[in-house]
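re: that chain from earlier
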Amino acid sequence: MRFRIGLAVLAVTGASTLAAPAQADEVHTLTGPGPGGSAMFVTYVGCDTFFAPTAAPQTRLNLGPAAAPRGRRSLGLIPQGTGTASGPYTPFGSLAGVDASVAATSATGSTGASYIWTITPDTLPGTAWSGRAETVVPAGGWHEVAAARLDYTWTLVDLATRQPVTDGGRATPGEFAAQHGDGEGYVVTGFGCDGNAVNIDSVRSGATTWDFEGVALDTTIAAAAGEVPAGATVTITGRVSDATGRATGDPLVLESRSPGGAWRPVGARELVDPDGITRVEVTVRETAEYRWHRPESQHADEGWSDVVVVGAIEAAPKDEPTAQPKAQPKAQPKDQPKAQPKAQPEDEPTARPKDEPKAPPKDEPEAPQEAEPKDGPDGASDTGGRQQENGADRT
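^ sequence. v structure.
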């Protein structure tokens, strides 16, 4: 939060150009301190004096605390030390009928300060009336702080030097307007002078009310592939962003279902990666739909992303040879005796010639071995002589 107000607005107040709240009942929803220069925004000022040194508080949206006066949330103000009062700025068109209020709560209680700046008919040129009142928020519960019911200490201030000119006494806004005349101006009602945190809601000025509620967030989803083989994994990503497109880093829960079935969470809350993207790997066993669920948080209502479908491709059956009938053994003839040779007459030997006694060989002289004839002394062959010798031996 960076808005501080000065006295420039008072320079045009006397010319009646200060925007006045709408007359019809209106409710405006804010998701933060509000833009400077609008009909209402949250600012910070000094506690002891309007222009004392200050430190901007941290702001946050909160559910409740407890039951918020309007809606479901409020704006939390966390002081960064003591001495700074933080709260709403609202303009008014009539000091006599000022109707500026704010609801506040603090677990430990908180003190603060409320300021009114106005130009009445009796102010000198270059001056303005400044009123200061202390504010107190008791510990616990919601409490309304209305400017019209506070007693302010009034001082006429030189706008150029910011120095006091004269003391105006102590009075409520209505009482002071009755003494000095009515006028336009603005109110700043702040808390946290003691350094204690406070939540504010239901800021009112005239017929207009400002309500603090959650920011509008957008959650997107994407799948790394539209189809994967059954049993494969796919990465699902999500991103949460605000109206400006800035990633907010909200945790997400992935949900899935079979087409037309009931949604169920895939796992626990997933935190965002450093690049502002949330990633989850899922195993796709069958075609399924996926979406991100953004749970309710302090600063935003719950929400869901669009739906993506990831198909599971079943594996094609492997090419197998056509089943052949099992080879059947050829039919064997029934056990029959193998063909036997024709029966022969029992023990009838083949007719053989009767054994006839062989004629004893005649005593014949052994065939003499041939020998080369030798020439005798008288030239006659020697063979004949030997034959004669043989024959003589057998005799």
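The CA atoms of residues 106 and 198 lie 5 Å apart.
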